[in-house]
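User: Some background: our group keeps a shared notebook of sequences we're curious about, and every so often someone picks one and asks for a predicted structure to add to the entry. Today it's my turn. The entry only has the sequence so far, pasted here. Could you supply the structure so I can complete it?
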Amino acid sequence: IHELDPNHPVAICNWDLFHLEDIAKWCPSVDIFGLNSYRWGFKEIWKTVKETFDRPIFLTEYGFQAKLKHFYDDGAQARYHMDSWKDIEGNSFGQNGVGNSIGGVIFSWCDQWHLGGTPSIHDMGAFMTVAGAEWYGITGQGDGSKSPYLRQLRKSYFVYKDLWTNSKNKNIDLK
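Assistant: Of course. Here's the predicted structure to add to the notebook entry:
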């Protein structure tokens, strides 16, 4: 790959750590190891990739549902995002962690009502299914009457706002 284009980094997007050893063996030209991970805490990831492949890590997707089983809990979602971002940041170069984190992409900005099959209905039943992924947004669409244009900001949105403006999350109720 670098023979064709030596001026740009090469990245891979993987599902968590699956086949990491194979990637390390067969893809030596990869400069950045990207992965989608929905764990609550990535601590093992930083160390495992450092020991197995020794590449910077970019979380190409990470997130958590605002609806768990049969109840709405955007506090749990907010706690996940706060812990995840601190983990990502704490493992970047110059911090106390492993030093191989280069960032991540939140999944997702807005709830995705279409995943359960009916774009006009927010699936209320499924958990840990494709339909359950309708609830990953750090913003919601309200009752759907103004969708897809309405955005209701969840606690997770305010977690990032505070983390990225250094206000130390003083005003967010994470319950």
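Suggested note for the entry: The mean pLDDT is 88. The radius of gyration is 18 Å.
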